[in-house]
Amino acid sequence: MGTVEETFKCPVCQDFFTDPVALPCGHDFCLTCIQAVWETEGSDEGPFFCPECQIFLPSDLTLQVNTSLQNKVKDFTTNSPSAAELRTTPPSRATVSSSTIHCDHCIETPSVAIRTCLTCDASLCQAHALQHQQRSALREHTVVEVTGDPLSLKCREHREELKLFCMEERVPVCCLCVLVGMHKNHKAFQLHEACTDFKSMLETTMNKLLKRRSEAEHAIRDLESLYTQTVKSAADFRERISDKYSRIRVVLDGDERLMMQIIDAEETYMTEWLEAHRGIMEAQIKEIDSLRASSKSLLRETNELRFLQQITAQNLCDPLDLAPIQEVDKDLCDPEKLRTVERLVDDLSVALSQHFPRMWSYLSSPALDSKSAHPKLEISQDRKQVYWRRQPVSEALSPQPYDSQYSVLAQESFTTGRHYWEVIVQDKPYWLMGVTTGSVNTKGAPSQSFSSLGVNNTSWCIYHGDGQYLACHDTQEKQLSVGKRVRKLGILANLQKGELSFYDADAMTLLHTFCVQCTEPLYPMLNPCIDVNGLNAQPLTMFWIKDPWDWHGNTNGGKE
């Protein structure tokens, strides 16, 4: 259908023919369009030419409307469903609206402009644009894509064409701007030179971006690989550790069974021994009772002959030499072996207690108090993360990265007991963490003395700055020797002992211990430090576990 449409359109106005005329060369044009082309050549007497094939035509040429073509165009525009829309649509452009730009030289029959001459400040249709190409006087004019605002392409001060580019101000300028205007003595290039330089720069930038994109894709692949590896490693460790605990349980269960069997055997042995001795005693009692009965019967005999016969028969003529009844030795039933079993279990408990409770048994995850946070800090919705708000670089450059006032407190404070928490720092280049004490105001938060974390006598902290670790307290700084970069910092407050210890929470390696003697509440404090150009934008995150085991409740619950 597109091919048929083109046969019904004028090559000059690019619209459907109106009063089409055919030239001897075979090309068709609107009557007004071809007349406008020839009129712009200056003479009504010729020479005339075809705008399509450029051949010269006789000066006495008579133009007649091609009624056959006109009827075909009429039929096509009437029957075609989109003819009305296509009729008003110039080539490769959107549908013409009320903002359509018309040729400034076509007065009687307005034609759609396709170019704009900045020298003439005029919009040109295809015919008049062709004229600018062919006439030597107009050939030097600057013709650009059609625009409704030619002045936007000119200097607003001098109304001259923008032929130069000021390299200092980075704006297009005219020649007068460089000679006598605001850009005098500025370095300026011609537009094509500036374009060449900037295109070269953009190509370099594109190559850098392509390289950076490739690096980012490689980093993503590495992250995905690390993610898979992390999940697999966690599963492997979970399985191995579960297996080790299973074996420990098997050993403990076996040891418990052994001890219970020892107790059972000891009980059986002792009860059997007691039963045997009881049988012996009962037999002795029975024998005694029998002798007493015989003796009693003889004593009642009045016939002397029968008495002597019976006493002789029963061997009772001599006094009985009865062995004394052996007293029961209660020591024989002393549960010494049972005490030995209990002692062995106690020894096992003592051996295990050297490793229990774990420091992680005291693990907690204090919520951050958004009310205590510096205005340039942002707290996550779950109150487990703190990070530097996005700020203009000019504002962020003035403070030091470790300025302690950019901090946030935890909602919870400690006065007694043991408390342990961990903060994830990963590869964050700057951070400051510790605890602070101070008087509490009416709202329940510490007074403003906490804003000087690590630089007064009521705060203790660890500062990390690009690989260096400092222990800070009361304006004193001590550089720490840390072999491996800390990814999680663990903090243990043992208030019974008056100690505050910092650990590499992954390896459980002690970094530093402060002696803390205080009577006021102790508040955990986090400082993510400032972020410049996104280099320190990573948050500080409280590490937490689901359903932590209450060690004291589980170990003491059975005793209460």
From TrEMBL:
GO terms for biological process: innate immune response. GO terms for cellular component: cytoplasm. It comes from the Eukaryota. Residues 10-54 form the RING-type domain. One of its GO terms (molecular function) is zinc ion binding. Gene3D superfamilies: 2.60.120.920, 4.10.830.40, Classic Zinc Finger, Zinc/RING finger domain, C3HC4 (zinc finger). Keywords: Immunity, Innate immunity, Metal-binding, Zinc, Zinc-finger. InterPro entries: B30.2/SPRY, B30.2/SPRY_sf, Butyrophylin_SPRY, ConA-like_dom_sf, E3_ubiq-ligase_TRIM/RNF, PRY, SPRY_dom, Znf_B-box. The keyword Cell membrane does not apply. Pfam families: PRY, SPRY, zf-B_box, zf-C3HC4_4. Residues 155-191 form the B box-type domain. The keyword Zinc-finger applies. Residues 346-544 form the B30.2/SPRY domain. This is RING-type E3 ubiquitin transferase. It comes from Perca fluviatilis (European perch).
